[in-house]
Amino acid sequence: MKKIVKTVNKNRIAIISISLALLVFILYNMFSVSMVQALSKYGSRGDEVRQIQTKLKRWGYYSGNVDGIYGSGTLSAVKYFQRKNGLVVDGIAGKRTLEAMGIYTSSTSSSASSNSSDVNLLARLVYGEARGEPYTGQVAVASVVLNRVKNSNFPNTIAGVIYQKGAFNVVDDGQINLSPNSTAKKAAQDALNGWDPSYGSIYYFNPATATNKWIWSRPHVVTIGKHRFCK
């Protein structure tokens, strides 16, 4: 009888040990997957890579297949994107690169409405302020508006921010009423979708023409085309 009890106890211990080992294995793999998803690089595969490829292809940085495989084409496209956006050019889609692409921004995405009137007004602002600038710079200008919407120091609507007294020259000189082109509309929509090449900036200016000492005192974030973006 004692032998039977000992055998049962040994079996229970073995089962518990196996269960614990299995639990550790599952937790380890879950943690590993989350780490990979936060850092896509050459050789990576999965949904995050597919998101990266989709964004870069839509913006003209990538011309390959959207297959979820981080190959040489995706690597080159990521480096191209990083170079154009003032990022460290290492070909790795880390936190800052992903944020610049508007990936994993659900917790910080704009609360502004993306209805047609908002898109049109934002596009008119972009066209008036930044036509002729690089596409990334046009998206950044739109992002500044959206960043102000989220900032308690500014009005909480797109229209309120754009028409705030003295905020934008194009409102004062009437260029806000010009019909935006398709590029400005796409830039506005990309900003509303979460892409922020300005990295949270709430101001921008042209260093070649700016004479206001205060704007020069603002912390510099990134320069795109002729515009210096700051907070």
List the helices and strands and how they pair.
Blueprint: H1 2-37, H2 47-58, H3 72-84, H4 95-101, H5 116-130, H6 135-150, H7 158-162, H8 169-173, H9 182-192, E1 203-205, H10 213-216, E2 220-224, E3 227-230
Antiparallel strand pairs: 1-3, 2-3
Textual characterization of the structure:
By secondary structure, the chain is mostly helical. It contains ten helices and three strands. The protein has helices spanning 2-37, 47-58, 72-84, 95-101, 116-130, 135-150, 158-162, 169-173, 182-192, 213-216; strands at 203-205, 220-224, 227-230. The protein has a three-stranded antiparallel β-sheet with strand order 1-3-2, with helices on one face. A hairpin with a 2-residue loop joins strand 2 (220-224) and strand 3. Helix 5 packs across helix 6 and helix 6 (135-150) packs across helix 9 (182-192). The longest helix is centred in the first third of the chain and has 36 residues, at 2-37. The protein is elongated. The model is unreliable at 28-37 and 105-114 (pLDDT under 50).
Strand % is: 5-15%
Structural class: mainly alpha
Low-pLDDT sequence parts: 28-37, 105-114
Number of helical elements: 10
Radius of gyration, rounded? 25 Å
- Let me know the largest β-sheet: 3 strands, antiparallel
Q: What general outline do the C-alpha atoms trace?
A: elongated
Distance between the termini: 78 Å
Write down the overall mean pLDDT.
83
Instruction: Give the helices and strands as they follow along the chain.
Output: HHHHHHHHHEHEE
Work out the helicity level: 40-55%
- Sheet with most strands: strand arrangement: 1-3-2
Number of strands: 3
